[in-house]
Amino acid sequence: MSFIKLPPINIENALDEAAINPAIFSHIDEVKSQIDLHGYCITANAIDIAAIDRMKNFWSGFINKKNIDRKFVRGNLVLGESNFLSYSDIPSWCMYRNFDFYWNKPTHCLTSEICLKLNSLRNSLQGFESDFGTQFNQDNYGIYVSTSLYSVGKGHFRMHADAHGETPILHFMIPLTFKGEDYNEGGLFIENKRGDAVDIDSQCDKGALIFFDGRCSHGVKTIQGKGIGRLVVFAIPTYFETGSRLEVFARSLKVFIEEYIDKFFFLKAVRSFLGRIKSFLRNY
Ligand SMILES: [Fe+2]
Questions:
Q1: Could you tell me the distance, in angstroms and rounded to a whole number, from the CA of residue 218 to the centre of ligand 1?
Q2: CATH number for the domain that contains residue 32
Q3: Which of 2, 89, 200, 234 is least surrounded by Cβ atoms within 10 Å, i.e. has the fewest?
């Protein structure tokens, strides 16, 4: 078991502006060594429970069939694209996932603020600059906020591993619903460094924060029981695609038409002006 219990959040140990327990920043070495040893680390009391309630209330209302506007995608996200909510039900996975990009207005401000702060914490754990993933860079590397809902009776995700070539992906996850309350069976399983599949969700109470090395095989076993299911927020690092060729072609075509119209009216105006000069000279 890889579990760190932070001191409870109280007046002496006040929250920071993103509702994160500041004690976590003084436990970075401990969290890092647990991840190195086991492949994951669960930190209790990391996030303010009032903030968890606010996020749960918002996302459980927002994520529904009428707000879906895409199919779920993995990778190939384009710089500048709009936020979207997706749903897919295929043998490999069944889930709702909302994608929020930091160049757009956030769907839920508190969620985006918390993820921004936790991305900075993740960067410290990986030895990166604190703003890595949220500043322009030549590799188009950045993060997006992912909010997933695995519904009861259907929601699942096959076991898989995540990495960016040589660079490991260190995931963090904030559970907004809990095993035993919002569903009874299934949930996140991670293969630890010894190769044992660990039931992560059964160890998480409200306010917990999960870190894990994306290279460890992980997946979500089918959610069963009663309740809204498994709702979780995290910010995923990715290499964004640059603008699509179709959009560049559409822009070029628009410019061509605009210039053509502009020249047409300019020539018409010049001809009309010359015509008036001619008629003026004739009558003079
Ligand atoms: Fe993954």
A1: 6
A2: 2.60.120.620
A3: 89
